UniProtKB/TrEMBL annotation:
Catalyzed reactions: a (3S)-3-hydroxyacyl-CoA + NAD(+) = a 3-oxoacyl-CoA + NADH + H(+)
Domain 3-hydroxyacyl-CoA dehydrogenase C-terminal: 492-576, 611-696
Keywords: Fatty acid metabolism, Isomerase, Lipid degradation, Lipid metabolism, Lyase, Multifunctional enzyme, NAD, Oxidoreductase, Peroxisome
Subunit details: Monomer.
Protein name according to UniProt: 3-hydroxyacyl-CoA dehydrogenase NAD-binding domain-containing protein
Record family assignment: In the N-terminal section; belongs to the enoyl-CoA hydratase/isomerase family.
Amino acid sequence: MTITNNGAVSETSGAGTFTVEGDIGILTIDYPPVNALSQATRQGIVSGMQAAAANPDVKAVVLICAGRTFLAGADITEFGKPPKAPSLREAQDLIENSSKPVIAAIHGTALGGGLEVAMCCHYRVGVESAKCGLPEVLIGVLPGAGGTQRLPRLVGVEKGLDMIVNGTHVPAKECLAMGLLDALVPEGELRSSAIAFAKKVLAENRPLRKVRDLDDKIAAVRGKPEIFAAVRKANAKKFRGLPAPEACIQCVEAAVNGSFEDGLATERRLFQQLVTGTESIAQRYAFFAQREAAKIPGIPADTPLVDVKKVGIIGAGTMGGGIAMNFANVGIPVILVETAQAALDRGLGVIRKNYENSAKKGRFTQEEVEKRMALLTGTLEMEQLADCDLVIEAVFENMAVKKEIFGKLDRIVKPGAVLATNTSALDVNEIASAATSRPEAVVGMHFFSPANVMKLLEVVRGAKTSDTALATAMHIGKKIGKVAAISGVCPGFIGNRILSARGAQAHAMLMEGAMPWDIDQVLYDFGMPMGPYAMSDLAGLDLGWSKDKSKSSTIREVLCEMDRRGQKTGAGYYDYDENRNARPSEVTKKVILDFMAKEGRTPREIGKDEILERCIYAMVNEGAKILEEGIALRASDIDVVWLNGYGWPVYRGGPMFYADTVGLDNVVAKLKEYGPRMGANFKISPLLEKMAADGKKFVRT
Ligand code: 3H9
């Protein structure tokens, strides 16, 4: 198609439109939502570059994108499917080998294949809010379109490697400093500034710089393998179980030690290996599961939302303070309510200290600390919350206290506001209906500790929660950087209910002869950050324990009575040295064996397979019950909860995804085999049994 507009000529092909303005060709890609490099986008680039080459009036080309972002990467949904022409390589070659300079004009995010295309351009300009990154490692692959070869040539090996193995999105200012961008241009003026830049390139007769030909930055580390060894060592824990980071490092090593073409060949070979591996399949599944979790069946995307301009938080303790930081971080003012000035001062002091620590680590400036602190005010009067759009109650878990608070909020807070409870266990319906006259405004917002760090937000939908309250909680969750998933009302909601099912099996095995460190080791080796007993020691065994009421009736009570209350007392299930290094404890072992003897139990050897299967399959079984009761909307939401709130290893996709990989029939067969050992109250989920019998899977990949 050719149209004329003020003398400008346009041709559209695929997702690309090529326009000529004077002697500059402008290739605009418009492929919502994120301009992924799907077939249509690749076609658009190829046709646009061919049009540029064929037009003698065109002396330089600007590559720019419509919508919210520059090219956000390869189309992940095309992975594993037969390739469709033209290839990304073809599009890149046309740009890099163009005899006319090509300038990438970047806004939003230039990610993965998108940045790899930009690095084939001869120059790159971007607005200050833009970010660049090679996040392929986060979906279990590597930059497979020359990114591992070009980025180190452009920005140096150490910076390039850091970006590639961590998948970080780097702000434009830093990109400029490291040489990834050639100029920053004013916000809102990207198109005109990129055209001006192109004209300058022409006027100054600047060279057609090909990144592939640069050598000085990689030559600087040639013969220095210690640089790669240091990255491997520093990240060993973080990369545990993940094949992609090591493959990324090998590609950059190839960039340093061989020719560009050999490096590309290594990159392509390793990409192919990774893309078909279960780890990457799991990571790609997790990417889409997370986005799916934001969609609420039956609630249209245009449901009216409460515009949250001011937030009230009740309780300035660890939880309330952490929650408050999330809002201040995105510029939303918060009022924190406490019952005593000392508690309020302490809470605000802790927040300031957290921010100052971040500033010391260089995450932001001291000025930014003050800016965020200025958004936080404290009060002892709940009446101050009257004009808040969202109030989150974050006091200790006591139904009577929560009801009293919600009763007051009902009288104080303006109509239309959302009233949320951060309870991790209590009945949201009871809080909503018994304490307020507006149960439709009440929703659970269950944050995970530390609330300013942990990604997960369980949004708990009460029986009467309105569509607006639910959608607002989900929306604000995303705004503050959380991964939000919806749960219905039940004890423990999705995450903690499954944790309890695992805990019950762990405890049962403890009483059969497995030691805490045996169980923890198996779960750690599976990929969890720690097992339940190391976790208990970290959190403190005395959470909810009271000396006066303690009756030596459980192992935990006995340990607390011995002042083995976890890491903080130097001993819990484990013994700790002065650096908090854990080692198995003879004392704990004796406590457990004595307990067993008292109950007439004889310890037996429990194999690693049994430990793993009983722990994990009990979780799967609970997940299936959660699904059949309608507590979770989708099996993938359960995975999202465990991936983002409990450290489930992303390369195993989540408990429900993992169960599919094992085979549901195998899971059910094992649960039946363990039979009574699973506990008197343990029942196999009918849904799980039926799905296993029907040969079904929980999730789609
Ligand atoms: C790669 O490039 C490999 C190459 O090196 C080599 C190949 C040979 N593909 O996140 P959002 C969808 S690997 C397909 O909610 P935001 C997403 O599912 C790729 N679909 O928006 C969602 O769909 P829906 C490297 C994609 O504004 C919608 O777009 N690149 C892709 O919060 C909106 O997404 C990456 O890994 C994709 N690449 O964040 C970047 N990306 O509406 C991955 C998004 O149906 N993407 N969708 O639910 C992101 O990080 C974020 O989407 C982004 C926008 C920051 C861009």
